[in-house]
Amino acid sequence: MTTAAETMRPPVQRAIEVCPVEVSMAVLGGAWKLSAVKYLLERTHRFGELQRRLGTVTPRTLTRVLRDLEADGIVVRTVYAEVPPRVEYSLTDLGRSLDQVVGWLDAWGDAYPRPVG
């Protein structure tokens, strides 16, 4: 049986040795992760739906983001045995616990001063 520490991504393992803020940044930092969580808080999405919601993210980048979030226990990927195969992404309980954090960051970003002109 593997422990959580054995399956943890190396950036997260290193961050644990520094401080909790660094753990948060290792799991959620980088382009598109928090935006993906924001939309998954609304409901379960298929890959294409999530890509359209995010806008300019490339399929390769979104795949990497979703794999990282899955490895960190934030997202669950469900594959349905259908033709063609259907894959859906949803949040785990840990992912849903980010609801307030994402809400605060969304509100802060919305209030951030915009350039005039």
Could you name the key traits of this structure?
117 residues, mainly alpha, 3-stranded antiparallel beta sheet, 8 helices, 3 strands, 12% strand
What's the quick description here?
The protein has 117 residues and is mainly α.
Helices and strands, in order, run as: HHHHEHHEEHH
Shape label = globular
Structural Rg: 16 Å
Poorly predicted ranges:
none
Class computed from helices, strands and strand pairing: mainly alpha
The number of strands is 3
Which helices and strands occur, and which strands form pairs?
Elements: H1 4-7, H2 10-16, H3 20-28, H4 33-42, E1 45-46, H5 47-54, H6 59-71, E2 75-80, E3 86-91, H7 93-96, H8 99-111
Antiparallel strand pairs: 1-3, 2-3
Characterization of this structure:
The chain is mainly alpha-helical and about 120 residues long. It has helices at about 5, 10-15, 20-30, 35-40, 45-55, 60-70, 95, 100-110; strands spanning about 45, 75-80, 85-90. A three-stranded antiparallel beta sheet has the order 1-3-2. Strand 2 and strand 3 form a beta hairpin. The longest helix has 13 residues, at about 60-70. The radius of gyration is 16 Å and the shape is globular.
